[in-house]
Amino acid sequence: MGFCRIWASVVLLALAAACATSPTGRRQVMLVSPDVAIAESAIAYVDTVRELEEDSKLLDDAVLAGRVAEVTGRVIAEAVALYPHTAAWQWSVALIDDLESVNAWCMAGGRMAVYSGLFERLALTDDEFAQIIGHEASHAIANHTAERMSIVLLTQLGLSVIRADAEEDNPSALSVAGLAAKLAIELPNSRSAESEADRMGMELAARAGYDPEAAVSVWRKMEALSESRPPQFLSSHPSPADRRAQLAALVEEMRPLAPTAPPEPHPIEIVN
DSSP 3-state assignment of 250? Predict the structure, then answer.
């Protein structure tokens, strides 16, 4: 037990030294720095794009590429204006040819992807797509990747305690440790992080000139789609009905943010 107490002290000291604050004022545990998260995400993105190319899963659609670049560029222009450090990020969007996947994501550092099924099965308007891309970009801006990586690191510290205390002839303790590691690695964004990305993304889209009401309509479409088969996008998100109600309460707050003229789109690399 002495070893456990020592490791517990180490973890508590790490937590005390690694507290951070998100753009909305939420307290975060940040054992992994945003710079490390961006560097690791860059490697993962290159590997992902290479696999997509090898499998011929990148979508060569000039019309969709132009649309994605325009909407994303306007939203990211506002992100850069509000968070100047993101101007140096490698903002890009991979177009993935997968009509069955209703999904989108953004890694640390602004590397994103959207799936063709997102447009095909939801019949997205530009206003609705702006809400989705704003939400995903906000995960990166709020350092949610680094936050999840930190949770994994803390889990690994806990596993060290379990392994140290487990007897060599007690495989059950080690199997529980392995399960805990797997769950931590696959951990989605927390509900608080999702709500944070909702608010931030809605603001970015509104400032870019997109209708905040679209945040409600896109989740209404998600809700309808989930009645038959939940889209992949919902696997790490709260229920569409709850999300829709929360967003509806923000619409009037966001309307005054609309610009007199749309911003000039920030350059976005389209990977297709």
Answer: coil
Q: Are 139 and 71 in contact (CB under 8 A)?
A: no
DSSP character string of 149-181: HHHHHHHHHHHHHHHHHS-TT-HHHHHHHHHHH
pLDDT on residue 25? 67
Amino acid at 127: D
Give pLDDT tens digits for 64-79. Answer: 999 999 999 999 999 9
Domain ranges in the chain are 34-144+188-271
Phi, psi of 106 (to 5 degrees): -140, 125
Tokens 């450090």, residue located:
85
Q: How far is CA 259 from the centre of its chain?
A: 26
Which stretch of DSSP H or E encloses residue 113?
Answer: strand 111-115
Beta strand 111-115 with 92-96 is parallel
Is the Cβ–Cβ distance between 150 and 31 less than 8 Å?
yes
- Model pTM greater than 0.85? no
Given a contact cutoff of 8 angstroms between Cβ atoms, the answer to whether 14 and 167 are in contact is no
CA 152, CA 8: separation in Å to the nearest integer? 16
Three-state secondary structure along 77-106? HHHHHHCHHHHHCCCEEEEECCCCCCCEEE
β-sheet bridge partners, residue 271:
94
Among the listed residues 252, 265, 267, 270, the one whose alpha carbon sits nearest the alpha carbon of residue 130:
265
Place of tokens 């803390």: 154
pLDDT score, position 18? 59
